[in-house]
Design a protein that fits this description.
The chain is an alpha+beta fold. The chain has one domain. The protein contains two helices and four strands, in the order βαββαβ.
Length: 82
């Protein structure tokens, strides 16, 4: 914190998380990732925006996973794990 500028100091604890997923032919791993993101506790965040990047050779299963997932920001489980 000693290296923060005076304008940054008031916001030192306001993290914003953004997930940019690069995926290609790994539908099972992508589903696991999305489930993990939904079940993770994030301090002070209500949603986590997710974007997907893949090229034109993506397989049908991965494409279906992306299309069936809500590409809107993932709603975060605000309950802190015990």
């Amino acid at each position: 914190m000693a290296t923060l500028s005076p304008t940054s100091l008031p916001n030192w604890n306001r993290m914003r998380i953004l997930v940019n997923t690069i995926t290609q032919n790994r539908a099972r791993s992508l589903r696991r990732l999305l489930a993990s993101l939904r079940n993770t506790y994030y301090v002070d965040d209500e949603v986590v925006p997710i974007s997907f990047n893949m090229d034109s050779r993506v397989d049908a299963a991965t494409l279906n996973t992306v299309n069936s997932s809500d590409t809107e920001p993932v709603l975060i489980n605000k309950t802190c794990p015990s």
